[in-house]
Amino acid sequence: MKAGGSRLPSAFPRPFAILLAAGLAGGVACAPQESGETPADPHELARLRLADGPLEEARVRRDTRGGFVVSGFAYFPEHTRLGLVLYDSTGRVLARTQTEVLNSLFRSMPLVRSDGGRWPAGAYEILIEAIFAPGAQPDRVLEASKGGAALSGDGMTTTVQGRPAFAKRISFMVPGDGGS
Hints:
Number of strands: 9
Largest sheet: 5 strands, antiparallel
Number of domains: 1
Helix content: under 10%
Shape: elongated
Radius of gyration: 16 Å
């Protein structure tokens, strides 16, 4: 973190807009599981707020067709690609999607069931990840983040290949009524 409380190196742009979908390759060794706070909004299933690091807040909401949408505010460089992976309570991968940070905001496409149905009641976990390696991030992101080395704080880790990466999990429950 820079002196004066700023989380961003001077090369990073400051906030205000919405997302685009983009690709992300590879997985990452995960940080310990963290549960979000219980939200007041009935459509919001979970919220995670971090005091330090490139992700400030992430929210999980149910869309109108029963998929899970992840949105939030992050201090990643503009156009950073984020991968989102949905797991069930046994750790089985159920769905994946990608999104891109634009003006410090991101919003995923819905994580949906392959049959188009609603996710049933139960425990779920979403991994938010970003790998700072050629091919996984655009060149401009690697330049702005010094290959990920300029990022620090909660959620920052390294891949088994030694590349800087971000990984954070959000755990939540879908109530017996389907959370609608």
